[in-house]
Structures are given as structure tokens and as C-alpha cells.
Amino acid sequence: MAVKRIGVIGSGQLGRMMAIDAAHLDTEFVFFDEAVKSPCSNLGETIQPSSQDSLQHFINSVDVVTYESENTDAQLVKEINQSVPVYPGVSSLLNSQHRLTEKSFFQSIGIKTADFRKVTTKEELDLATKELGLPIILKTTREGYDGKGQALIRTQADVSSAWAELGDKELIAEAFVTFTRELSVIAARSVSGEIKIYPLAENDHSAGILRVSRVPAQNITPEKQEQAKGFITTLLEKLDHVGVLTLELFDTETGLVANEMAPRVHNSGHWSIEGAYCSQFENHIRAICDLPLGDTQARQPFAGMINIIGKHGDRNLVLTQTNCFYHAYGKDERLNRKIGHINIIANSEQELESSIANLTDFISECGD
Ligand code: AMP
User: Which residue in 334, 261, 348 sits closest to 304, CA to CA?
Assistant: First the structure.
């Protein structure tokens, strides 16, 4: 079988884990990114967009293209797609890039979201606070991630400072959702339309950054399980999505509420490298190459993931544990930067929790 040449727009840790996890499928990776030294620099050629004839060179070097970020330039995706297929397609990308578009889309296909309003002027913000009721979360419609570009408005006294901070951008005001926890559902859909869904993850954040995921999320009612499956399946099909898709959810007393989606492999799915029969990274590559999808079930009853943020920490503490797996991304230490993660597999909840407790230094070594 011929080697499949896969192009990735970007060269961060997600591209790195795709290349590592799909190497055994006879793949070759080419990265399209300005960074010369990156998490991907040892895993294939990097073509710098600023170099001469770079786009044509990239297109000639690959059979299929994917990307690492929902902020990928949609124009670039459209242009490449005229010569080589790009997955996920532009519809998945455009619906994920803009919070207003995304939430309107969710609602149009029956996926529940927080009530929201578009805000472009101070008057619209004042009206939104009245119509939605306080508290509200004010967010930029584009390019927000890990809680950046957001302000919580608890009382009327917070309105002016939130407007001063964010008012120069297009905004969305969201009603505050009272939730018990945050969940995510990740699934893959292949070119042929085959769909496989991973078990739900429960995600702990701090300062807007994911710290720990636990899989499968415990004590989910069958109704909520079905709701999550229904949401992600509807999304995959309505978008004609190819590749991995992630949906972040709030767990509330009255059911699941969608927060946002990412047309890509996701931090809350990193556990799947050792935790599932087929990882999200391999399944993403299988999906875009139209290979049969791998089994998304967990290999062991419990799995976890701890992000390594800011500082590398004591690696040997992980390497000496049979059920823990260390993944570094080839990145330098920097405050609040995701530089690696640790996967944990366990036979019981108690074993998982005691492994997480053993590694608490990693969770706190992040400059909070
Ligand atoms: P986001 O960038 O939209 O993922 O938001 C970052 C974090 O802010 C989420 O993980 C939630 O913890 C919180 N958050 C976002 N939107 C809402 C909302 N409408 N209600 C309550 N909390 C929210």
C-alpha cells in the first residue's frame, strides 16, 4: 500500500501526536507553519508559508490536509481544497470560529446552549444584562481560548470595566449557566460516514485552562449519555464533518448544555493514547484517509489525564509508575503554556484518584 502523505496546517503538539500515533499506518507528515523549531520539527518537513512558492510546494507534497486549530484561515483551507482535500471541511471550521455563528447553529439543530445576545455597542451590552439577567459572561466572538477574551459580569458595577476591557471587539453576551461540572464528548467521522464516539470525559479547569480529565465521567444518567451521543452525531452529520470533532458541555440539573465545539482532536481526549483501543489522533488520521475507524472504547475501566503546564516537573515520578505515561511536547517552559501531559489508566476509581493524588505537584506547578 502506498504511503499516505498528510499535510498539517500548524506544527504544535496536536500535529505531533497525530504524526506519532499514525506513523505505523505508513504515513508521512508535512507541516505548514512558520516555526522552524516546533513540536513537529523532528517528525517531517516543515514548509514555511513565507518561503517562495510555499503553498504550491505544500500542495504538491501531500495527498490530504488537516489542521490543528479552529482559528485556521478559512480562505487558505478553501484554496488548498481546490487541489487536495482538506478535512474537516470549511463548514466545520466556519461554524467553530465564531461564537455567535456557532451558538446559532447549535440552536438551529436542536442543541441546547446558554441564552445569548450579540453585543457591538455599550447600549447593546446594557440591554443584554437586562434581558439575560446577571451574571453574564461577555466573550469576544473570535479567537478566544483557555478563557482569554472573556469577562464575567456579576453585578452592574462590573459592566463598565468589562466594556473597557473588551468593547473594541465584536462580542457575545451569554447567560451564566449553573452547572455541576464540565464534560466533553469526542467523536470521529470518516470520509465514508462511519462514526465512532469516545466515552464522555469530565474536565477540571482552573484559570480557564484544562488541568485534569477523568474518563468515563461518572454518574451520568442514561438520558444524558444519549443526549451527548445525539448532539455529537447530529453535529457530525449536519456539518458533513470528516475527522475528529469535540463538543464541550455543561452538566446541569435539566440536561446537557453545549458550550463550544472544536473541529479537531482535543486536550480532553489525550487520555485515549494509552486509555482507548484507538486514540483520537490515530482515529483522526484514519477518518481523513477513509480507513476503517478504530475502537473508541477504553481499554481499562478508568483513565485520566493531567496537563503539564508551565514547568516540566519531576518526570521520573511518572516514569516509575506502571499505569502512568509521560508525554512531553518538545516545548520550553513558559508560564501557563501546555508543555506536556500525563496519562493514567486504572482498574478502579480509587486507583485513578490515588495516581492523580501522587502527581499533584504537576497540577499545581503551573503558576496559578
Ligand atoms: P470558553 O472559552 O467558552 O470555553 O469558556 C471558558 C470557561 O468559562 C468554560 O470552561 C466555563 O468554565 C466558563 N464558561 C463559559 N461560558 C459560560 C457560561 N455561559 N456560563 C457559565 N460558565 C461559562
Answer: 348
Domain 4-86: give its CATH code. 3.40.50.20
What span, in angstroms and rounded, lies between the C-alpha atoms of 99 and 116?
Answer: 10
Q: Is the CB of 149 under 6 A from ligand 1?
A: no
CB 209 within 8 A of CB 307: yes
**Per-residue pLDDT tens for 55-92?**
999 999 999 999 999 999 999 999 999 999 999 999 99
Cβ 114 under 6 angstroms from ligand 1? yes
For ligand 1, whether the C-beta of 208 sits within 6 Å is: yes
Torsion on CA atoms 12, 18, 23, 24, rounded to nearest 10: 160
CA distance 146 to 210: 8
d(CA 20, CA 324) in angstroms, rounded, equals 18
Exposure letters 185-218 (e unless 16+ CB within 10 A, then b): bbbbbbbeeebbbbbbbbbeeeeebbbbbbbbbe
Tell me, using a 6 A CB cutoff, whether residue 28 lines ligand 1.
Answer: no
CATH architecture for the domain at 115-175? 2-Layer Sandwich (3.30)
CA-116 nearest atom, ligand 1:
19
Q: Is the CB of 205 under 6 A from ligand 1?
A: yes
CATH numeric code, 181-363: 3.30.470.20
User: Measured in angstroms, how far is the CA atom of residue 179 from the centroid of ligand 1?
Assistant: 10
CA of 259 to the centre of ligand 1 (A): 7
Model's pTM, two decimal places?
A: 0.96
pLDDT at 149: 85
Tell me which of 106, 112, 137, 182 to substitute to probe ligand 1's pocket, judged by most ligand atoms within 8 Å of the beta carbon.
Answer: 137
Short-list 121, 90, 122, 118, CA closest to 103: 118
The Cα–Cα gap between 321 and 285 comes to: 30
User: Per-residue pLDDT tens for 267-276?
Assistant: 999 999 999 9
Where in the chain are the domains? 4-86, 115-175, 181-363
Write the residue with the smallest CA distance to atom 2 of ligand 1: 147
**Paired residues of 142 in beta bridges:** 98
What phi and psi, each to the nearest 5 degrees, are found at residue 308? -100, 115
